[in-house]
Design brief:
The protein is an alpha/beta fold. It has two domains: about 210 residues, Spore Coat Polysaccharide Biosynthesis Protein SpsA, Chain A (Alpha-Beta Complex); about 110 residues, no CATH class. Strands 1, 2, 3, 4, 5, 6, 7, 8 and 9 form a nine-stranded mixed beta sheet that branches. A hairpin with a 2-residue loop joins strand 6 and strand 7. The chain is globular and about 60 Å long.
């Protein structure tokens, strides 16, 4: 049987959600799939659940390994993928049963490097659909990402699509293998968009992205500063190719800024001031080096940017005031 799509699931201590995830994948209407569960040294029952499903479905391959972090687990999964295309499902998320049949049909007809769909954030009973193209003008069109800045400015997600295996191998696209499960998807997102020539976005919603998993929050200092490590990894790749650097450096800095803002909001209060010191230093240097394209920023983000590099403590206290107001009004 020709494998049309390999689905990589990086698994680590997610027994609460894993059955729902696996059920959604094994019940895909596209039957020519393989499911690669990479158990990254789980210490709960996640590995046993994967083995249980593998006994029932021969399309499931389980790889048990010592804990090495999200990036390492993803690379192991991709290295073992035999499908024409490769998809990603996070083990605490779930998907609709026609996801891969629908995505693959567009790839086969258009010879795409990758395709992505809109997705849905799920928080308990609350659901919110997020779009890649608010204008609705680029859907169903074959595009080159570097020629469509608005697409590159949008959600940096990897799991709501599939990627041609030959494309991934041709450009040696890998996840950065840093400890833990923090931010390694940023490099993969950046590299796939940087090298791709033929991509497509469709407005369908297949992927249910869970935001209510308490174990996904960032609480320790080691993980917090992994965001810098990830963007250093991307920067090193840009530095090796002057043409790519010229095209993507401003986008790199813009996406880095958005991710730093997101990280600042998300991390524990006790870590915010330390994080903000590095935040200021890096973007003040980028500004002095003329690497910031102000046209990419919204007015609101530009105000945040100048506040971070000129008055970081004002940014800090405005955040605190907003949080207190939000808490009181809810």
């Amino acid at each position: 049987m020709k494998i049309k799509v390999s689905i990589v699931i990086p698994v680590y201590n997610v027994e609460k959600y894993l059955r729902q995830c696996l059920d959604s994948v094994v019940n895909q209407t596209l039957k020519e799939i393989e499911i690669i569960c990479v158990d990254d040294g789980s210490i709960d029952n996640s590995g046993k659940i994967c083995d249980e499903y593998a006994l029932k479905d021969k399309r499931i391959k389980v790889i048990h390994k010592e804990n090495g972090g999200y990036g390492k687990a993803m690379n192991v999964g991709f290295d073992n993928a035999q499908g024409e295309y490769v998809g990603i499902v996070e083990p605490d998320d779930y998907i609709l049963n026609n996801m891969y049949e629908r995505l693959y049909s567009f790839c086969g007809n258009n010879n795409l490097d990758f395709i992505k769909s809109n997705f849905c954030e799920v928080n308990g009973e609350n659901k919110k659909i997020l779009k890649f193209d608010e204008t609705n003008k680029l859907y169903y069109k074959v595009i080159k990402p570097s020629e469509h800045i608005n697409i590159l400015k949008n959600h940096g997600t990897n799991w709501c699509g599939i990627y041609k295996n030959d494309f991934i191998k041709k450009f040696h696209i890998k996840h950065n293998e840093t400890p833990g499960a923090s931010y390694q998807d940023n490099g993969f997102w950046f590299l796939t968009n940087m090298y791709a020539l033929r991509t497509m976005f469709i407005p369908d919603v297949f992927y249910m992205y869970r935001t209510d998993n308490p174990n996904s929050s960032i609480q320790n200092k080691e993980k917090v500063f992994c965001i810098k490590t990830e963007y250093d990894y991307i920067r090193n790749i840009l530095e090796k190719n002057p043409n790519l650097k010229e095209t993507f450096l401003s986008i790199y800095q813009y996406r880095k800024f958005l991710n730093y803002v997101f990280t600042f909001r998300r991390i524990h209060m006790k870590l915010k001031k330390d994080f903000l010191k590095g935040f200021k230093k890096e973007f003040k240097q980028a500004y002095q080096n003329k690497e910031i394209d102000k046209t990419l920023f919204s007015k609101k983000d530009l105000i945040k940017f100048y506040m971070v590099i000129k008055c970081p403590m004002m940014y800090y206290y405005i955040y605190l005031i907003k949080q207190k107001f939000f808490t009181k009004t809810n």
